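Hey L., structure's done. Input below.
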Amino acid sequence: MKETLLQVDGMSCPSCIRHINDALRGIDGVEEVDVKLGEGTVVVKHDPSSAPMSALVAALRDAGYEARPNAA
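Output:
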């Protein structure tokens, strides 16, 4: 399992947390999702062989959010 930190634009309210959780947990290989609304970040614990970065970003884009890896 790998932990990936994503910077997510467009999160503005508590319902965004649910939308992001639903979008990412719908991907096979995603084990945990921790949305930090105040920081605009999401930590995803996932299996990169079945849930690669591109799938995480695409799922968030489909849910209406722009995401990118955060090096912090």
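Strands lie at 2-9, 30-36, 41-46, 66-69. The two ends are 19 Å apart (CA to CA).

-- N.
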